[in-house]
């Protein structure tokens, strides 16, 4: 039964302990983590207004102009709503199932613009391993664990390391999908039409209120 070298054991134990800690602060100077163990989720894709307006009808464009609607401002609000919602839902959207005593407990965001995702893990089976190599070695020498049990600690730690890799890859995949969704002009068309419809209703209500007020004054 193989066990890890002292260097590998202690390095992995330190890493697994760190990966179970939340970010703690949005500045790298004070955080429990670093950019090396977080994921860059800065946005590099943005909607193209020309492509979006090309998808709406002449009548819709005319309505926007008549009502004096700021379509670009509306799109910016929509895109940040999508981004913020995706950030809140990321932990639930990660498709990696809890396995081998490993799970995700949450996702924190740090960096100046919040563009770094810190996945917080929980590992049920590596507590003894994370005590370090000398602890495991002493437990073995004292007869408290067998070589097979020590080897199992190492296997569980390796599984936890692989789980971290798999989850991080899934987060990167989800981020690429979000960027593609944000950049797709089709994403905004239904919301634009709802925005126009609501704006027309608001304008009608405003006209009605003004008419009612004028009617009262006329009396």
Structure description:
It is a single chain. The protein is built from 7 helices and 3 strands. The longest helix is centred in the C-terminal third of the chain and has 37 residues, at 147-183. A hairpin with a 5-residue loop joins strand 2 and strand 3. Strands 1-3-2 form a 3-stranded antiparallel beta sheet. It has helices spanning 6-18, 49-53, 58-67, 71-93, 133-141, 147-183, 186-218; strands spanning 39-40, 102-110, 116-123. It has one domain (6-218). The mean pLDDT is 91. It has 219 residues and is mainly alpha-helical. It is elongated, with a radius of gyration of 27 Å.
From the structure above, extract its key features.
single chain; 219 residues; mainly alpha; three-stranded antiparallel sheet; 7 helices; 59% helix
Individual helix count: 7
User: Numbering strands along the chain, what is their spatial order in the largest sheet?
Assistant: 1-3-2
Give the ordered list of helices and strands. Answer: HEHHHEEHHH
Cα gyration radius (Å): 27 Å
Say how many strands there are.
3
In short:
With 219 residues, the protein is mainly α. It is built from seven helices and three strands, in the order H-E-H-H-H-E-E-H-H-H.
Secondary-structure blueprint:
Blueprint: H1 6-18, E1 39-40, H2 49-53, H3 58-67, H4 71-93, E2 102-110, E3 116-123, H5 133-141, H6 147-183, H7 186-218
Antiparallel strand pairs: 1-3, 2-3
